[in-house]
Each structure stands twice: as structure tokens, then as C-alpha cells.
Write a structure and sequence with these properties.
This protein is mostly helical and about 230 residues long. The protein folds into 2 domains: about 70 residues, Arc Repressor Mutant, subunit A, CATH 1.10.10; about 150 residues, Up-down Bundle (Four Helix Bundle (Hemerythrin (Met), subunit A)), CATH 1.20.120. It is about 70% helix and about 5% strand. It has 10 helices and 3 strands; from the N terminus they run αβααββααααααα. A hairpin with a 3-residue loop joins β2 and β3. α5 runs antiparallel to α6 and α5 packs antiparallel against α8. The protein is elongated.
Length: about 230
């Protein structure tokens, strides 16, 4: 019975998370346990568990005597979260460079060369797949856990394509990234990934940001070598 409730809780949680990220549920929207239980055709127990999990992720607020509401984030808060996400992905890229084998490089080269540039949706999906592969190559449970935690607290999709960003330009940056992998240049790979993420998500990289990233990299490397 406990496993059944847990599975229902997860399905409800991920469904609601997707609707929050997509904007179907906007900031301030009331999440009624009764209405949700009818919508998902489940008891209120998994609904309550799902709402508690989303509250822990920071996506909703539990207001005493009023219920659950989708949290409203300012533009600055959203950009801060996106910046942290971009930096963590860049750190994962640095770690992946140090652990990538020949077969891995061949797979990356095939994926990057095959990136479509005629459909924005397909292009973003393809890029997400490449970044997911890089996360797997990094093989850092602690870093992956941190990235997942940030993803769970996002109210927008982790990656989207800016109107002013060219798919061809981003694909070229991925080609530069592949070159850094082949030369085992971790610094260059990390910097290139930050550029890729900025082209996707309008996260500006300043000199201060680079210093912060360098400090974070040092801490991460110390953790990996411990």
C-alpha cells in the first residue's frame, strides 16, 4: 500500500511540476486538494504528499487555513536560479572532460554533428540530450544531486532558445566544446559551456561570475579528490 501511495504521489508531483514550469499554473494559483484528487482520481493522501514535496522544492507555498498556492517568483529570482543551474552544468562539463574516454568522445561527436537546425523544439531537445550525456560522463553523484535539486526548484524550463540566438551559432559552440574535450582542456570546456548556456537562457557572464565559477570549481575539485 505504501508503495502504491508513493507512486501516485510521484505521478501527481511531476504532473503539477510540469504545469508550473510550462506556465499552465501561474504564480498565485490555488491548488485545491479536493479538486486535484478528483482530477487525478486518487485519494487526498497522495495529493497532500505531492504538495508537500513541491513545497519542499520551493515551487509552492503552504498557507495555514488557506491551502497550497503556486509560488510567485520575481524575474531576478528566476535569473538567479538559472545562473546557478548554468554554473553547475559548466562544472559537470569540467569534470566530464577529465573522465571522457575515446568511445564517449565519438558518441559526443556524432550527437553534435547531428544537431538539427531547422526546428527550434528539436534543437533544444537535442541539446538537452547532449548535456544530459555530459552529466552522465561526469559521474559525480554529489554534483548531479545539486543539479537535480536546482531543476526541481525551477519555475521555467531549464533550457529555452532566445529569439536572438542562432541555432547555427550554438551548434558551433558545441563544436568548440567537442574540441576542448578532445584536447582535454577542462578550463576551455567549462567556459564554452557557460557560453552555450548563456545563448540558450540569457544568463550574462561577467568577470565576477567567472571568479565565482573558478572558486566553485576549486571547491568541487577538492570534493572530488577527497
Amino acid at each position: 500500500m505504501a508503495n502504491t501511495v508513493s507512486n501516485l504521489d510521484e505521478k501527481v508531483r511531476e504532473s503539477l511540476r510540469g504545469r508550473i514550469v510550462s506556465g499552465d499554473l501561474s504564480g498565485g494559483a490555488h491548488l485545491s486538494e479536493l479538486k486535484l484528487s478528483k482530477e487525478f482520481n486518487v485519494s487526498r493522501t497522495p495529493i497532500r504528499e505531492a504538495l508537500c514535496a513541491l513545497a519542499a522544492d520551493g515551487l509552492i507555498e503552504m498557507v495555514p487555513h488557506r491551502g497550497a498556492f503556486v509560488k510567485t517568483f520575481t524575474a531576478d529570482e528566476q535569473q538567479d536560479t538559472q545562473f546557478v543551474y548554468s554554473q553547475l552544468i559548466s562544472l559537470a562539463t569540467r569534470t566530464a572532460v577529465e573522465r571522457a574516454g575515446i568511445e564517449t568522445l565519438m558518441d559526443l561527436e556524432t550527437s553534435i554533428s547531428g544537431m538539427p537546425t531547422t526546428s527550434t523544439t528539436e534543437f533544444v531537445t537535442y541539446a538537452e540530450g547532449i548535456i544530459s550525456a555530459i552529466r552522465n560522463i561526469s559521474a559525480s553523484p554529489a554534483l548531479d544531486k545539486a543539479i537535480t535539486a536546482v531543476e526541481r526548484g525551477m519555475t521555467t524550463a531549464p533550457m529555452w532558445l532566445n529569439d536572438g540566438s542562432s541555432m547555427e551559432q550554438i551548434k558551433q559552440e558545441f563544436t568548440y566544446l567537442l574540441g576542448a574535450f578532445k584536447r582535454q582542456k577542462a578550463d576551455a570546456a567549462e567556459k564554452t559551456m557557460r557560453q552555450i548556456m548563456s545563448l540558450f537562457n540569457q544568463v550574462e557572464t561577467t568577470e565576477t561570475d567567472i571568479d565565482m565559477a573558478a572558486t566553485a570549481t576549486t571547491v568541487q575539485n577538492q570534493g572530488l579528490n577527497a
